[in-house]
Amino acid sequence: xxxxxxxxLPKDKRVVIGLTYIYGIGPSRAKxxxxxxxxxxxxxxxxxxNDEISRLRVEADKYVLVGDLKREVEMNIKTKMxxxxxxxxxxxxxxxxxxxxxxxxxxxxKGKGKTIANKKK
Length: 121
Hints:
The protein has helices spanning 15-19, 27-37, 50-60, 66-82, 86-93, 107-110; strands at residues 3-4, 7-8. By secondary structure, it is mainly alpha-helical. A two-stranded antiparallel sheet has the order 1-2. Helix 2 packs across helix 3 and helix 4 (66-82) crosses helix 5 (86-93). The longest helix has 17 residues, at 66-82. It starts with a strand and ends in an 11-residue tail after the last helix.
């Protein structure tokens, strides 16, 4: 079983797809890691040898991933909130940060709709 950065990669998937299960690795970075490690992208995870797994681990360690990356993102958000930037204010209010409209949708950020008493339709 391949385990990289304390995450078990799915056995029946290709290596490139399996690497994307690690937080911070997308398709392009997964391809780069495979190329640098000298592992064939179409190899299934269960067919990897111990040597190939160790080379993938070494290549993955060159990037900021999983816990460190999550911590870094949270610190960036906290910094924006502390300096009262526009994005920080939007984070505090629980509104969309990146310029989306709020008059119609934005339910993911705003939460369930609130009913207003005596509002005419």
